[in-house]
Amino acid sequence: xxxxxxxYKVGSWSFILVGVGHLATATFAPSTPEKVQITQTMKxxxxxxxxxxxxxxxxxxxxxxxxxxxxxxxGVLSLLHARKLGFPEKEVIWVNILISLVALILSxxxxxxxxxxxxxxxxxxxxxxxxxxxxxxxxASIDR
Length: 144
Known about the structure:
The protein has five helices and two strands. With about 140 residues, it is mostly helical.
């Protein structure tokens, strides 16, 4: 496996791991008296949107589960894209860098060290992939 492929895969797998961790945390977080109290308060906060009655707890849980699924899906799509083509396209690498950067900034503001580290790793790996891609392309044009 070459360096470009390795760094791209590590970046993609970082997104998958953040998604898995997100789902695991949302699903298996232990119950504490404080959590039970907050959960009850969230259940009592009604939300009506476009004719659907819900509550803040259901919205919170839904967004949390959806985020885990989408993070995993993003990582899997990145892996499948590179696998189908044999290498990641430069435009896709740029999108991955942008998404990783935004996700990292949000994670630094709202979350803790594990997702922040994994998203930082994704940004670093996608950036290294881009640098390697540009270097390889320029080296190939010089060799001609």
